[in-house]
């Protein structure tokens, strides 16, 4: 007997079909032995955390490319950190739900996507020869709590912040010939596959918000602000600056005070923040964290 599909099941069904039609295997679809041409960028210069500062002015063109490489290695290895957390959260959902639903089957498919992405990011960092910086130790420790304290629309909303911020940064480089072909290919694969995840999570936010009590709403607003703050602050691990002979603490403080860097974060989060504001997830008691994160201008 075929069951009539409700809205949630319909979306999952459509996403399952789309996943079957279009997915990449980075092992096969990327030529990992292709050379990394000298002089090609890893990150667009105006997206580097120090762009426009007095420290940036002191760097040679080669050092600027080198810093871009290390910043991207930091972002990619943090991408693995976020995806590993997301996989745990999705597995929790699978553990607690009926596997004969399309919803759970799509959750399993998304885990498979993220598994391939994390392998791809790991391989990318390995290929560049930079370190897999990941988050700073305190964020790494706090991340372990998330599968226990996180639930509901804030959880899916936080996932969206990580996915959509990365998405906007990656999209910008995809068609830019100044950027390394390997970086563009990795980004293209990620952007294409993430579009489905964004649809899935956005609908979960909307459905989850409709069910919240007033007390839960406060907790959810705090949770998403705290996780999103941790997420965007983690993208650049201050140790990257050592690669170009800068002192991590001084360079990181300079980056945090850099209006270009603040604007990059705001711009990268612009689309998802619009959605979260409309959904009602942005509000007290999370506002100071949103402003501190630079996702919302003061
Ligand atoms: Fe991903
Ligand atoms: Fe994703």
UniProtKB/TrEMBL annotation:
Question: From which residue to which does any coiled coil extend?
Answer: none
Question: InterPro entries annotated for this entry?
Answer: AurF/CmlI, Ferritin-like_SF, RNR-like
| Originating species | Amycolatopsis bartoniae
| Gene3D superfamilies, A to Z | Ribonucleotide Reductase, subunit A
The protein's name is Membrane protein
Q: Which GO terms describe its molecular function?
A: oxidoreductase activity
Lineage summary: Bacteria, Bacillati, Actinomycetota, Actinomycetes, Pseudonocardiales
